[in-house]
Structures are given as structure tokens and as C-alpha cells.
Amino acid sequence: MAEIASEIEDREERNRAARSIIQLMAIMTPQVREEENYQKKLWDHLHIISHFELDVDAPYPKPEVGEAKPKGNKPSYPRRKMRYAHYGNFVEGYIKKGAEMPEGEEKEALTEVIANMMKRNYLNWNRDSVNDEMIKEQLIDLSAGKLKLKETFRLMSTNDILQQNKMNSQVGSTMNKPTKNNNNNKKGAFKQQKSNNKKRF
Asked: How far apart are CA 32 and CA 7, in angstroms?
């Protein structure tokens, strides 16, 4: 959801989406309201999960990379039959909470973010084809008619989503790949240890 908000080109629309996500995060984690400066913590967490790429007019300064680390227990995943399993529990959770929000700009922005998230998840499940009208209809279905997109709204293009998924995959692969310097250091250390063993004998 944060990644999708980051990709919104219009700054004001991006700001609205970010505020909607913050509101939804507060609704889904009511226990955080008992903590000091909970609003700041929510904004910090939003920047973290967006990999610090979300450029918005936040009420608090963006934390430095490595400064703030999200804490919390591992979320539990309810075992129940889902009508559209490919969207995942989180998407259905967002839809449920979003449907409870009062009408207004923030609900509208959140609805747009959820719709794009649904399309992204659908493409992760089936890359062959995706129908935007089907996504919109299933959003209405899952929200019992409480989340509807404007007729003029257009979902992100399939090519853009697939390209973004590919880039994210490449970044993750690069981060997990050992660097050449590390390998050279290991080889150097092995040679040094071998040389030392020869001198001892």
C-alpha cells in the first residue's frame, strides 16, 4: 500500500493517500494510541515500509534510515475461507476498515490505493491477464458496496506494475547476494591462515 502511494504522481493526491493510510493504520492497531507520540510513530512506520521513498508533506520530519525500526509481534494470519484468496488477508482487512471510514477525500484516496493493491496482488497470482473492471466490481463486492471508485479513475497500468515488481525483485536479490569484496576478503583470510599454518610447521 505504501509503495502504491509512493507512485502517485500528483503531490496532493499522494498526500491524501498517505493520510488515509495513517488513519487506517490507527484503526487497525488501536493499541498504539496508548503510546506516547503515537501519530509520529505511525508516520515513521509509513516511511519505513515505503523504504523511505514516500515524498509527502508529513506533520513530522522523515526519520533517518536506520534510526527508526518497527517493533511488534509477528501478525497472526486467520485461517478462514476467503472469497478471493489471491488478494490476501491484509487487503480484505484494509477493505473492511476502509468501508467503516466516513465519506470524504481520505476514504476516496484510500479506495484508490486499495484498488491498485488488488490489481498488484492479482498480477502476482496471474500474470497472463487482468481486467480492471473486474477489480472494481470485486472491490464493490468485498466492501458490500461501500467502496466505489470514480468513473474517471484509472488503475495503474499492468506494465507499470509488472515492471515495479521486477525492480523490487532485483533489489531484493542484490541485497541478499554476497559482494565480490566479501568473497575476496574470505579468500584472502583463507590464504593468510594457510600461510601461517605452513610457518608453524
From this structure: 27
Spans of the chain below 50 pLDDT: 70, 73-78, 172-176, 178-183, 185-187, 189-190, 193-194, 196-201
Model pTM score: 0.55
For residue 76, what pLDDT is reported?
47
Q: What length is written for the chain?
A: 201
Contacts of 40 (CB under 8 A, 6+ apart): 60
Which cell goes with 90?
491484509
Burial 87-115 (b: 16+ CB within 10 A, else e): bbeebbebbbbbbebeeeebbbbbbbbbb
Phi-psi region of 88 (alpha: psi -120 to 50; beta: other; left: phi over 0): left
- Domain borders along the chain are 2-156
Give just the sign of the alpha carbon dihedral 26, 67, 165, 6.
Answer: positive
* Nearest residue to 91 (alpha-carbon basis) of 112, 114, 107: 114
Q: Label residue 162 exposed, middle or buried (CB < 10 Å: 0-12, 13-18, 19+).
A: middle
40 CB-contact burial (10 Å; exposed 0-12 / middle 13-18 / buried 19+):
middle
